[in-house]
Amino acid sequence: MTTKPSKNQSRKLTSKLPANQLPQPDDLQTIYADGILNIGLGPNVSRLTFGIENGDRKFKPSMVLVLPTNRMLEAISAIHGGLLNDPKARQGLIEGLDAMKAMLLKKQ
After folding, report:
1. For 65-84, how does the pLDDT look when each residue is reduced to its tens digit (9 = 90+)?
2. What gap in Å lies between CA 93 and CA 95, rounded to an integer?
3. What does the alpha-carbon distance between residue 104 and residue 55 come to, in Å, rounded to a whole number?
4. Domain extents for the chain?
5. What is the rounded CA–CA span in Å between residue 12 and residue 56?
6. H/E element, 2
7. HEC secondary structure over 34-74
8. At what angle do helices 69-85 and 87-106 cross, to 10 degrees?
């Protein structure tokens, strides 16, 4: 028995589509997560497990994103490049890391 994919499942986002065929922001699903709980890189596909903090610094898995590994690596490269080329983003990351470092040192 085969099932027909839902509207969201059948829609694929690729840079090969003309801009007027890409889903518009109101068509896209937004999912909030407090963090990435697990990253699994495989030869063909990779998985990111996202989670929601449910108190006492404990996280509950809330979503798994599966995508081709080559696309995952492209995303990592784009994030890295964005940080290198955007002084404001880089400064924000440095400040966040400094705050995390201070919190960790306080706990010693």
Report:
1. 999 999 999 988 888 888 88
2. 5
3. 19
4. 22-106
5. 38
6. none
7. CEEEEEEECCCEEEEEEEEECCCCCEEEEEEEEEEHHHHHH
8. 100
pLDDT tens, 8-64?
A: 443 444 455 566 666 677 777 888 999 999 999 999 999 999 999 988 888 999 999
- Return d(Cα 34, Cα 19) in angstroms, integer: 31
- Residue recorded with tokens 């809330």: 62
pTM above 0.85, yes or no: no
Tell me the C-alpha distance between 77 and 65, whole Å.
18
Calpha distance 105→102 (Å, rounded): 5
28: three-class secondary structure by DSSP: coil
